[in-house]
Each structure stands twice: as structure tokens, then as C-alpha cells.
């Protein structure tokens, strides 16, 4: 028994040591094809994990040098989880591959599908003498995700906060505390206190609902202790254009969410589309065409996705094949229609699947396998001499999505879940579902380091409460 325990400890210690100190990698082999991956999100990270780097020269380009575990991002807006706990530097993945992988922190600003090149630009704050370059590729994977949809409504970008990236969560946390401290300023008129403490969320999809749930927890678990004079003046409203929130969940769970929100005193304004956004108020239009002004202190905008400009430009270059405005059209093997040697996945595409992490991640795993098979087949000179890459790909199995269920946190230690079991969808909600939600996401976190950081954050929050300092 002692020998087994000692063996396990040695194994764990060796794993931790090699995670921390990666081994020397083989250098890139110029005779291999260049596989260029755009992005470091769900789709790209999952390809990187599965790709055999001895088959290609892998190059990754992304403005973010880390992977972000988006399902726990709403928890960072109020400090339930600290933001670094859900970030994983991309080099923690690339440095553990057999052959060296190049990473360039840059935005891809243009894709030339004819000459097989991309333009990349360092758009970060600090730039060197060279900040724009052109890279050649043999194979390209477009995994750049999507950006926030404002539906062209003026004032959104200037006056609202989005919730997509780590800096969005940090901005929300700072603004929230700023609103509260400004409301506590001596002599603040009652009407202004009311406005500053009105937190408005636009969009009743899962992002808006999860954020509202987290904010509610912060108000009842922390604000009430540290700002006893203000706590009962805080109001939280969720504005949704459709007739209900969370249309992708089953009816039972929609009703459960709406009734939980009501009992948590979150105002749900369904059938109310935001038409104008100003510095201190929004204008909504109800289904009976009534217009109403709603003052706010903090405005969070969560109304879904639209395509990034680099993807839109690429679609513009392929007008015959790319006929949808909602994203790149791909075939069953995820090849971008109208191109050669180019694949796309995740939120950058328009397919029959919802824009979800589980879709992008499964597509990434599939694509890594496909590229590994292709690389091996191409290595076999006899096959490669007589067959084109596209003919080889046709022989490989197409992508198949396996739906793993939908989960969302709704606040007050309650979550909702639609879980597929033997072909049926089972709806589950409440505290037990919340515990399931927690364990599912801890398990899904990529490595022991992030798992321990998130678990520690939850323990810290329970023991000491959330940090209310304004950054
Ligand atoms: P992303 O993960 O967004 O990655 C895109 C990558 O491309 C990023 O690294 C980005 O920096 C990079 N990039 C951007 N522009 C460029 C450029 N010009 N050049 C190069 N690189 C670029 N889905 C679920 O299934 N379950 C959930 O619980 C869930 N929760 C979510 C919570 C929130 C708050 C949000 C916002 C989303 C959530 N989602 C969830 C959806 C999920 O995050 C997305 O569907 C998923 O991230 C899509 O993966 P992707 O790889 O296509 O894009
Ligand atoms: P969404 O597209 O799911 O929902 C946006 C909502 O905003 C819609 O219900 C829409 O009717 C509403 N809306 C749009 N314009 C409006 C306006 N002017 N006024 C009022 N309401 C308006 O977007 P969301 O929540 O940002 O999610 C994006 C993607 O990420 C989705 O595919 C979602 O499923 C996924 N996601 C999944 C999560 C989960 O599974 N737990 C969590 C968060 C996101």
C-alpha cells in the first residue's frame, strides 16, 4: 500500500515538474507544410492539444496570448472568481508539443485565399519597430470567434460594457464599484443615487442571465454587509426583446428562471427592445410600441454575436461560395467553401449548430485528427503523388457533433440544465443542479493549475467574501 501511495506521489510530482519545466523541443522542419492557426480560443486550443506537430510547422496568431475559459467569465465580473484563474497562457500548451510551435501575438487583418497569405498586425499598446507582417500558409484554420453585436445602435460601444473577454469582466467589476462609491458620495441627490444604483443588463440569452445571477449574489452576500445604507436601494433589471429569456432552454427551465429572478427581485422586462443608448439612460420600445426611458448606472450589453471584420472581408472575396452574412460556410469536413487548404470552426462559422464552446471544442478535436491523418497520408509519397489533399480528405469521416447538454447559473446557488439522456432531454434545476454545474466546470478546466485556482477562489469567497476594492 505504501509503495502504491509513494508511486502516485512521485507520478504527480513528476507531472507538475514537467508542466512547469517543459523539455527541449525539436526545431521546425522547413520541408513540412505550414499550418497556420488564427485564434487561441476554444476551437484553436482544442486543435493545438490534438495536433501532431511532427507533421507540420505549426504557427499560431492571436491578439490574446492565452486561452479563456468563457463559461466562468460571468463569475469574474463580481469577484466570485479572480480573472487569472480562468486564463491559461497558450505557451503552456505549445511548449509541451513534440516540435516547436511559433506563436505571434497579433491580429490577422487580412486573408488572401488566392496567394495563401495572411496579414498580421501587432495592435497591442507596446509595439516594436516592425508591427505588420505577411505570413504564408499551406493550410489555414480560421478560429477567430465572433464579436459583440450592437445591431448598429449608436452609443452602445461608448456607454455599455460587453461581456466576452477578460478585460470586459474587469471593466464591469470596476464600473460596478465606481457606481456604488459615487452613490455613497456625500450629498448625492436621492434621484442620482437611484440612477447610479440601477444596474441594467440588455439581452436575456445565457450571458445576460448568468451575469444577472452573479450580480444578484454579490448584492445579497457582500454589498449588504459593506454598504448597509445603499444595499436596499440597488435595483437590477434585465431587458429582453423577445417574449421570454433563454429561448434555447426548455419551457420548464425558462419558467423556473423567470420565477427565481422574480423572487430575487430582478426585474425582467421581456418584449422590450432597446432602441437608443445614451450616457445615463436607454430608450426601450415595448411590444405595444410604447417608448420609455430607463436611467442606469451600469449597463451591460449581451445581445449575441456578429462576424469579425477579417471574416467579413474574407466572405466578400468569395461572393459565389460565401452567401450567408452570418458567418463562414463550411462543408462537412469544415473546409471553407470556395477556398483551398482553408478550414474554419466555432463562432466564425455559420452552421446548423449554436455558437457554443462545446461545438468549437469538438470541431477542434475533429480537425486535429483530420489534419493528423492528412499529414500522415501526405507523408506516404506513393499516395501523395497520385492524390490531391482534397481527395484524401473526402475519404475521411465528416464532423459529427455530440450535444452534451446546456447548463447555466442563474444566481442564489441555483442552476438550470437540459441534459440529454438516452435520446431524451431531461430538464433539471435548483441547488443540486448548481453543484453539478460547479463540478462539471471544474472538471472541464484544462489543467490542475486552473482547477486549483478556481476551487481556491470559491473557498476564499465563502470564507472572506468578495473583494470590494475598485481597481
Ligand atoms: P473564441 O473562443 O472566442 O476564440 C477566438 C480567438 O480568436 C480568441 O483567442 C481571439 O483573441 C482570437 N482572435 C480574434 N480576432 C482575431 C484576429 N483578427 N486574428 C487572430 N485571432 C483573433 N459556450 C458553452 O458551450 N457553454 C458555456 O457555458 C458558455 N458560456 C459562455 C459565457 C460567456 C460569457 C460567453 C461570452 C460565451 C460563452 N459560451 C459558452 C460560448 C463560447 O465561449 C463560444 O462559443 C466559444 O468561445 C467559441 O469558440 P471559438 O474558438 O470559435 O472562439
Ligand atoms: P444570445 O444570442 O444567446 O442572446 C441575446 C439576446 O439578446 C436574445 O435573446 C435577443 O433577443 C436579445 N436582444 C438582442 N437585441 C436586443 C435589444 N436591442 N434589446 C433587447 N434585447 C435584445 O447571446 P448571448 O447570451 O450573448 O450568447 C452568445 C452565445 O454564447 C449563444 O450561443 C449562447 O448559447 C452562448 N452562451 C452559452 C452559455 C451557456 O451555455 N451557459 C453562457 C453564455 C453564452
From TrEMBL:
Q: Name one GO cellular component term.
A: mitochondrion
The FAD/NAD(P)-binding domain is annotated at 35-364
Can you state which reaction this protein catalyses? Answer: a quinone + NADH + H(+) = a quinol + NAD(+); a ubiquinone + NADH + H(+) = a ubiquinol + NAD(+)
Q: Which residues form the External alternative NADH-ubiquinone oxidoreductase-like C-terminal domain?
A: 403-467
Question: What's a Pfam family in this record?
Answer: NDH2_C
Q: Which domain of life is it from?
A: Eukaryota
Q: Which UniProt keywords apply?
A: FAD, Flavoprotein, NAD, Oxidoreductase, Transit peptide
Q: Which InterPro entries match?
A: FAD/NAD-bd_sf, FAD/NAD-binding_dom, NDH-2, NDH2-like_C
Q: Give the Gene Ontology MF terms in alphabetical order.
A: NADH dehydrogenase (quinone) (non-electrogenic) activity
The protein's matches in SUPFAM superfamilies, at most eight in alphabetical order, are given as:
FAD/NAD(P)-binding domain
Point out the coiled-coil segments of this chain: none
**EC number, as in UniProt:** 1.6.5.9
Q: Which family does it belong to?
A: Belongs to the NADH dehydrogenase family.
This one is known as: NADH:ubiquinone reductase (non-electrogenic)
Q: Which organism is it from?
A: Dimargaris cristalligena
